[in-house]
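From the methods appendix. Each design record in this collection lists the tokenized structure first, followed by the designed amino acid sequence. Records were kept in a plain field format so they could be parsed without special tools. The example shown here is representative of the layout used throughout.

RECORD:
FOLD TOKENS (617 positions):
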């Protein structure tokens, strides 16, 4: 077990010489960014204060402000201030991740939106070999516990911006007096409007001068480029290193915040990594890095690829779902609403007909064709629970959005060179490309999810035609996963770079996953990861949560709230357990939670049935 906090007050009470000796004990050392060898260069550094009506966790909005249906307004819609875009980004990212509905229990049954005054330290960092930087951010609360030094390090989920994990890591760590370090892991909402030559500055406001833009790619002649798809770096291959750099920046920030207590290093500071979705995958990649710099990891619903039976890459099952799931869902009953079956059934039947014409399914009418598509998905490992929850991703066109973005990222294609011809642009009512407005650009950084469509940016498909306009593009995307052409080999090589290894021996890891996850089915990700790690003797534990799907934010929809429990309470509970374990408490254990749907009632503790800490023997 790594060092415990009880040793730190003694170290901090000694003279500088004794403190240095205490910090240098054991195997944990200073990060490269502090030692100076192979140093991480943090650029565009700035610091901001958040007090007196503002704070780190909600920008002064509080729970009621986060629950408001409309985002915080800009005084000038075309020229917002950095404070305005930050407040709106926090509002958007809280609502995108957490269930804040009054009956959902956030802030009362679990979680925190406490007012936490403090400072933020912002910078850009670049991993060796990369051409584009990523954002790092450290939030240091005014009540940071200098006697029990702790850092919670996290990565944004999906392609979200730098505040994308505020409801995951910030909500747990900041009220406990920990510093929280964030990375956008080379994704984020630093969009670039090639038509106007306007990007996003480090403070989140529009950058008319290209030189001031955080992301200004070469080779983008028209439309809109964004970092995850168009950096040319395949950032996912380096997500573990992005997480470690964020932790390194946290040590630097703490040294600036509390110079009298310096040095801050990994030997004297507890570091716990947490993330969900592909942020969960990022912290698992960090867990495999050399060095005793990390104390524990909690990964919720992680997107992670390993060499193990049953494992499938995100791109593989996403392109399969994009193509087959609309048809297959016609054969599955009791789908959650939305999507409204009466509205989507004609579109899904058209997909069935397209698949039959392409020889991909059998049957002479929609009913038999959908049964054929369903049988294929079941045969490839999809459960009915994952398929039902996946209807949401079909309805929101999320499968195609993920596939288009990741194909570009894995193949390192520029914005004008997508292998299936896709581009991104503001769009008119008929979905034709148009020039973005100044007001749209001003809200990209705060409102965007980092992966269009959304925030006024759409997917342009030049091959769209006929009764099933998306089919041709989806077939092209699928061929990149399973084909053998030059572009397919290029994309597949990028996917291979993202394979995860084993976590460091002795590092406590808890993986938390919803049994009904329809975006990242645990059968393709967590189950093979845990099986492989446990077979190799790693300290990995698995919490399976029945009646949980991928998106807590969508539990605001009544039918989803009635069917599913949120996953965040279990992530927080896992963090509580590993933190207590590092203080000498019992180790977490594998568990299948006895959760229960709430129906039409408010969420209660009995619905969650959170795992209790195992008593010490």
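DESIGN:
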């Amino acid at each position: 077990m790594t060092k415990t906090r009880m040793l730190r007050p003694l170290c901090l009470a000694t003279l500088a010489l004794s403190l240095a000796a205490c910090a240098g004990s054991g195997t944990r050392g200073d990060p490269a960014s502090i030692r100076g060898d192979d140093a991480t260069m943090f650029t565009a550094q700035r610091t901001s204060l958040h007090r007196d009506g503002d704070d780190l966790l909600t920008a002064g909005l509080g729970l009621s402000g986060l629950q408001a249906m409309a985002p915080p307004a800009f005084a000038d819609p075309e020229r917002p201030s950095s404070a305005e875009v930050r407040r709106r980004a926090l509002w958007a990212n809280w609502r995108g991740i957490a269930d804040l509905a009054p009956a959902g229990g956030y802030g009362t049954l679990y979680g925190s939106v406490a007012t936490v005054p403090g400072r933020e330290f912002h910078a850009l960092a670049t991993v060796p070999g990369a051409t584009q930087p990523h954002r790092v951010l450290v939030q240091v609360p005014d009540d940071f516990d200098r006697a029990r030094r702790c850092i919670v390090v996290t990565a944004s989920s999906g392609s979200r911006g730098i505040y994308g994990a505020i409801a995951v890591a910030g909500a747990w760590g900041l009220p406990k007096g920990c510093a929280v370090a964030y990375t956008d892991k080379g994704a984020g909402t630093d969009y670039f409007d090639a038509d106007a030559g306007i990007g996003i500055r480090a403070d989140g406001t529009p950058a008319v001068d290209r030189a001031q833009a955080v992301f200004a790619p070469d080779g983008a002649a028209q439309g809109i480029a964004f970092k995850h798809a168009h950096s040319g770096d395949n950032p996912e291959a380096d997500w573990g290193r992005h997480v470690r750099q964020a932790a390194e920046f946290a040590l630097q920030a703490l040294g600036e915040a509390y110079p009298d207590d310096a040095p801050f290093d990994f030997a004297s500071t507890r570091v716990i990594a947490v993330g969900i979705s592909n942020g969960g995958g990022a912290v698992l990649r960090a867990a495999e890095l050399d060095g005793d710099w990390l104390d524990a990891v909690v990964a919720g619903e992680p997107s992670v690829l390993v060499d193990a039976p049953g494992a499938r890459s995100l791109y593989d099952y996403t392109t399969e779902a994009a193509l087959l799931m609309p048809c297959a869902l016609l054969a599955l009953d009791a789908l959650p609403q939305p999507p409204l079956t009466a509205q989507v059934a004609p579109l899904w039947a058209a997909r069935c007909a397209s698949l039959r014409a392409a020889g991909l399914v059998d049957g002479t009418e929609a009913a038999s064709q959908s049964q054929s598509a369903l049988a294929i998905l079941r045969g490839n490992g999809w459960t009915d629970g994952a398929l039902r929850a996946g209807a949401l991703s079909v309805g929101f066109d999320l499968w195609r959005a993920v596939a288009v973005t990741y194909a570009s990222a894995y193949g390192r294609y520029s914005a004008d060179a997508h292998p299936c011809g896709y581009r991104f642009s503001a769009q008119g009512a008929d979905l034709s490309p148009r020039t973005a407005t100044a007001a749209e650009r001003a809200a990209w950084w705060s409102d965007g999810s980092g992966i269009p469509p959304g925030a006024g940016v759409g997917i342009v498909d030049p091959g769209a035609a006929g009764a099933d306009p998306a089919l041709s593009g989806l077939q092209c995307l699928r061929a990149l996963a399973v084909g053998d052409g030059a572009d397919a080999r290029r994309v597949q090589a990028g996917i291979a770079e993202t394979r995860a290894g084993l976590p460091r021996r002795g590092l406590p890891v808890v993986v938390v996953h919803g049994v009904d996850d329809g975006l990242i089915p645990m059968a393709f990700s967590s189950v093979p990861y845990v099986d492989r790690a446990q077979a190799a003797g790693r300290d990995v534990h698995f919490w399976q949560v029945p009646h949980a799907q991928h998106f807590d934010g969508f539990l605001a929809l009544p039918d989803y709230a009635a069917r599913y429990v949120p996953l965040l309470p279990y992530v927080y509970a896992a963090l509580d357990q590993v933190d207590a374990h590092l203080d000498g408490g019992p180790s977490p254990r594998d568990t299948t939670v006895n959760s229960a749907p709430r129906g039409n009632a408010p969420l209660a503790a009995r619905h969650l049935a959170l795992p209790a800490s195992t008593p010490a023997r």
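APPENDIX NOTE: Residues 1-37 have pLDDT under 50 and may be disordered.
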